Amino acid sequence: MWSKHRFYDNGYKDGFAHGRIHGLIEGRALGREKGFEMWEELGFYEGVAAMWKAIYARQGRQDDRGFHHALQLLELISQFPRTNPSAESSDVDIPKLFRQIRSRYKALCATLGVKASLRASGTGSPSAEEDGTEPSHDSGNGSKIWDLSSPAKSKTGQDLSF
Amino acid sequence: MAYQFTTTADIDSESPWDESPSDSKHNEDAQWTRLENEFTTAGYREGITAGKEAALQQGFDAGFAHIVPLGRSIGMLRGLSSALLAFLADQPELLDEAKAISTQLARIRFSDVNPRDEEAEQHALEHLADGEDGVETEMQGGEGGAERRGMEALEDMMAGMGGGGDSAGRPTVEDVARLRERLERLARGMGLDGAVDMS
């Protein structure tokens, strides 16, 4: 019996080391994809706000409503985490912040009389985003922001919860 | 005499032609080896799942933090040029350049600018050396990534860029840098260079 355990343990140890490499590789690929997607969108709003802020300033229109929308949009985006915070350090309500950013962006566009384009890249589902619902960003789990839950069930980790 | 008999049996058991079921030593060895294989394999299977699960989040966090500056920077270029485009609507002499920049920025995909994961490539090579395959999809974003690449290949075909779905004609990180310079030049000419500072 003892030998059986030894064989199993030796196999487990080797398997764990190998699995770890695959977990890191797969996790990195998923993290890159998600991080790029989120910050490409946030960066877009940031760029729009920065440009209009400069335009308003250049025209000496710092009292305009649009200028203040741009400032507030920049402020909200600056609060958004640039890493995936662990449960203990996370005190930001990410879905809420994301909603605030999107609605502030829409307010800026409305003030400017410009059509709001929520995604520059044209990927994702703009209609869902228009409603302010974030199908892939929302979850009941507010403690850990980008949490890989039960990855064993899904080989590719598609059930990332936010 | 008993000693003599055992020796003969040992020699016999090493003979590949001897498959006599009555040869207990041979059977014991075979069973032992089979047992070792079975338990080692079972342990390996469970270990690989557990190891993967244990490291997935760590990999995700690392990949996330690594890519955010690039995603933000491309998003910002798009946002800046989009705002400029709207602002320049009635200034045709500058509008064309803003449009050109904007259009080219819109063509960029994550797969065009996603840096190589050298560790993943190295590990895939090790698998190839072992005569395995199937690691490639994992390196390139898993099954979801494969699906997306399929869609992108389709888009390329429909855009008349050739049916290979390869990277020929795709924008590169260098193209992004050039587009940034063009955007900076355009903004500077309008006295709006402060906006393009992305610190």
Automatic annotation (TrEMBL), chain A:
Annotated Polar residues bias: 151-162
Disordered, as annotated region: 119-162
Domain called Essential protein Yae1 N-terminal: residue spans: 11-49
Coiled-coil stretches: none
InterPro entries in the cross-refs: Essential_protein_Yae1_N, LTO1_adapter
Family stated for the protein in its record: Belongs to the LTO1 family.
Name under which the protein is recorded: Essential protein Yae1 N-terminal domain-containing protein
TrEMBL record, chain B:
Annotated region (Disordered), positions in chain: 1-29
Residue stretches of biased makeup (Acidic residues): 11-21
Domain of life: Eukaryota
Classification via Pfam families: Yae1_N (PF09811)
GO cellular component, one term: nucleus
Record domain Essential protein Yae1 N-terminal: where: 43-80
Keyword Cytoplasm among record annotations: yes
InterPro entries: Essential_protein_Yae1_N, Yae1-like
Localisation: Cytoplasm; Nucleus
Keywords associated with the record: Cytoplasm, Nucleus
Primary residence: cytoplasm
TM region(s), chain numbering: none
The family this protein is said to belong to: Belongs to the YAE1 family.
Name listed for the protein in its UniProt record: Protein YAE1
Originating species: Heliocybe sulcata
Organism taxonomic ancestry: Eukaryota, Fungi, Dikarya, Basidiomycota, Agaricomycotina
